[in-house]
Design a protein that fits this description.
mainly alpha, globular
């Protein structure tokens, strides 16, 4: 199995794990937890899970491969901070978008991020936009739209302008997170970066929660211990593991491919909602999932071209700024 296929499988698996967040969020909200309280505990348990994994050597690079903190270039440390800020921004924005919008509508707006990532990657010359990538992008966005519209069938649509802005801010935040994660802090292992992001998110959400009247919601698990299993599961399965897997995948197959494949999440989310929340699964959602898998197949069959490759590109890039070449 080549690195590109491994990267595609890793990103799809990460998207599948992230999709559990919809069901978990629904259960948490029904039990009385606010969005920021749930996010704070999710990030906290995610960070703790990463620390435990690192303690036992999981995800920790070999001694000879470690780069001392003092030797990490300042530019990479800056990018790591940008990545952490982007991670917190999209996490908080999408949770509050759920409050103002129908969840499916929030996701519909959020999943414009592959288009943003593709556009920026192409304009900056970091990656070449080939015909295969362009077709895969259309299939992926079309598939996610079908999957999300299926969730909206028969449901009263709730929206306001604040929610729309929050969902779009979340899309931009995710785009920056993916773009910077490509090679912005390559000296920092994915496991270390994930731990830093989750710790930063936990701290930020806790501060926001205590500052804006969510203290009771944050402390709710101490009053009702039945919340702990849900929060721990969310931290490990819907935060720590998929966040690390997504970052690993981004570094293996690039920002554009990763952003496209990440939108497999609403498809799996629809299936989980049908199983655990008794929501109906529509044919249009199944078609959407098939389209996204077709996009994944196309991406697997089309390795990243080197500068001057014979494959025709949709957008011609300057020869002086070649795209990143991934292993194949």
């Amino acid at each position: 199995m080549n690195d590109q296929l491994k990267g595609i499988i890793i990103v799809l698996a990460a998207a599948a794990l992230f999709s559990t967040l919809g069901v978990l969020t629904n259960v948490a909200f029904e039990s009385g937890m606010s969005p920021v309280a749930f996010a704070a505990w999710r990030e906290t348990f995610g960070a703790l899970a990463m620390i435990i994994l690192l303690f036992f050597g999981v995800g920790r690079p070999a001694l000879q491969d470690r780069v001392p903190f003092s030797q990490i270039p300042k530019a990479q440390l800056r990018n790591l901070c940008i990545g952490a800020l982007a991670f917190m921004t999209y996490s908080l924005a999408i949770f509050y978008a759920f409050v103002h919008l129908t969840v499916a509508l929030a996701y519909l707006l959020f999943y414009i991020n592959p288009a943003i990532v593709t556009l920026i990657s192409t304009i900056t010359g970091r990656e070449k936009l080939t015909k295969a990538k362009f077709i895969a992008l259309l299939l992926a966005i079309g598939g996610s739209t079908m999957a999300i519209l299926g969730q909206m069938t028969g449901e009263a649509v709730r929206f306001d302008w604040i929610g729309i802005v929050l969902a779009l801010v979340a899309a931009v935040g995710m785009s920056v997170y993916i773009l910077v994660g490509r090679s912005g802090y390559s000296s920092v292992p994915a496991s270390y970066a994930t731990t830093i992001f989750l710790l930063a998110g936990a701290l930020a959400f806790a501060i926001i929660g205590f500052s804006f009247g969510d203290k009771d919601a944050i402390l709710l698990p101490f009053q009702d211990a039945s919340h702990w299993p849900l929060l721990m599961f969310a931290g490990v399965i819907a935060a720590a593991i998929p966040t690390m897997m997504l970052l690993i995948g981004i570094r293996m197959i690039g920002a554009t491919r990763s952003s496209m494949l990440q939108i497999f999440e609403p498809v799996v989310g629809s299936v989980l909602a049908a199983i655990f929340l008794a929501q109906q699964l529509y044919f249009i959602q199944i078609v959407g999932g098939v389209l996204i898998l077709c996009a994944a197949y196309i991406l697997q069959r089309s390795p990243e071209p080197a500068a001057g490759a014979a494959e025709e590109s949709v957008v011609d890039l300057p020869a002086s700024n070649p795209p990143i070449v991934t292993k194949s």
